[in-house]
Amino acid sequence: MATTMDNEQKTLWNTVKLLSQLQDKEKAETLLKTTIEKSLRLMNVYTPVVSQLRFSVPVESYLDEMKQIDAQIREKIEISQSEQIFEELLDYIEMISKMTEKPQETNRKMLASILAEKTQRPTYVGKILHSPMNKTVATNTQKESNHPYYTTREAAHKLGLSDQTIRRMCENERFQGAYRSEGGHWRIPEENFITSKKQDKRIDEFFEQIDMRNEEAGDVDEFNL
After folding, report:
1. How far is Cα 91 from Cα 65, in angstroms, rounded to an integer?
2. Are strands 149-151 and 179-180 parallel, antiparallel or unpaired?
3. Which residue range or ranges hold the Helix-turn-helix domain (predicted)?
4. Is 0.85 topped by the overall pTM?
5. What is the pLDDT of residues 65-90, one digit of tens each?
6. Together in a domain, 128 and 109
7. Cα torsion through 18, 24, 25, 29, rounded to 10
8. CB 119 within 8 A of CB 135
9. Which DSSP state fits 192?
10. How is the beta sheet containing 186-189 ordered, strand by strand?
11. pLDDT tens digits for 88-108?
């Protein structure tokens, strides 16, 4: 599973570089956000601040360095969670901040949001969901909301994780405001993610174009698209 995840992340970083070379700045920025989001999620780090940021896609050498550090940190975290690894994670977050207009301010906000997420107590909705007597109340309260949401299947596809893992994350309150529908299915508010469904669709369409061209002409060099 780890090898598959590494390959997926490498593909994402390489595609960001490809889009940058093609000078498709909008798609490059969107995919960069997606790549960072998946990277941080796999490191068990959640910082909603990133969704509010505008990124400038850096030079290729910087993207290659990000890709390498991403893989190294995730590999080390799976083995242990020493102080040194968290120092490397802080450096990684600083590198992310440098791709924004105000690096120092962004770095502070990202760290503050991570600490807040790690230390916050369960939300009111979370408490209700753990109370069988009030489950209907929680469902009705959330049902009245018209905010866009992700299903566990959609979130699993987005983050490159299994549906079971996403459901477990919902049960452990890893997604703010996640709730069960009347049919008992988890619903995850869109604001939990860096990119929107509309942006996800555009990136998926881009990958579909690559796949179609590969089927038509064999193994196509993506840099010739």
Report:
1. 12
2. unpaired
3. 149-193
4. no
5. 999 999 999 888 877 778 888 889 99
6. no
7. -50
8. no
9. G
10. 149-151, 186-189, 179-180
11. 999 999 999 999 989 999 999
